[in-house]
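Whiteboard transcription, Tuesday session. T.W. wrote the structure tokens on the left side:
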């Protein structure tokens, strides 16, 4: 466990932030430094963070709390329980931000990033669980609906049968099936299917190729379009 602190917020009459993170999960000199700069820039531009309010970072929801030092701190969901417990870390928030950004930029451009909120709803199949292949499809989001469908790839499971589907928060879907998390910032019109964990990604019916040297190309060097 490590901590990092902003240093410029006080110039604008605002408390500094004290961030707690796991150095094994996120690099301090990259992602944590980015978050510090983002917070300082937001404060400099007039944003005021108040204890008890939510702050969205990527798809992650964080909670602003007062720290005993007089600083502010950010807390994140534990990603284990439903409903979740708040924990004084930003590790998972930053790790997911990096992962989702890298996945999108493996097949599209940074301009195509479309982060939902983990508090938004998704349709999931009743058999969705961990350590299984998945099929994901995103339609146009509407209000609190993320647009995501998350299902299993079991051939005998009818995803057109409403009794086999549930509407849950994206957070709950990710707790049930953590393997969906990398793909959740992909935009509308995307279809993802995995086979033995290896993804094939389509957009509007067209297969997307992993960009050479990208995260997905390195992660799955033998991937072939099916």
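and on the right, the sequence the group agreed on:
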């Amino acid at each position: 466990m490590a901590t990092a602190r902003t240093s410029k917020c006080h110039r604008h009459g605002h408390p500094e932030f004290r961030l707690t993170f796991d150095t094994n999960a996120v690099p301090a000199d990259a992602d944590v430094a980015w978050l510090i700069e983002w917070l300082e820039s937001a404060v400099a531009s007039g944003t005021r963070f108040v204890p008890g309010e939510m702050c969205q970072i990527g798809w992650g929801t964080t909670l602003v709390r007062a720290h005993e030092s007089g600083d502010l701190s950010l807390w994140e969901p534990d990603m284990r329980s439903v409903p979740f417990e708040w924990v004084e870390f930003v590790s998972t928030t930053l790790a997911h931000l990096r992962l989702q950004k890298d996945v999108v930029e493996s097949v599209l451009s940074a301009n195509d990033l479309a982060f939902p909120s983990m508090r938004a709803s998704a349709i999931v199949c009743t058999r969705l669980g961990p350590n299984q292949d998945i099929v994901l499809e995103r339609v146009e989001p509407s209000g609190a609906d993320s647009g995501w469908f998350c299902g299993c790839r079991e051939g005998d499971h009818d995803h057109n049968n409403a009794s086999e589907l549930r509407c849950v928060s994206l957070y709950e879907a990710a707790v049930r099936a953590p393997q969906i998390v990398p793909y959740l910032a992909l935009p509308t019109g995307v279809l993802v299917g995995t086979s033995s964990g290896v993804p094939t990604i389509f957009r509007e019916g067209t297969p997307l190729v992993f960009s050479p040297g990208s995260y997905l190309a390195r992660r799955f060097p033998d991937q072939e379009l099916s």
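Someone added at the bottom: Residues 202 and 208 are 5 Å apart (CA to CA).
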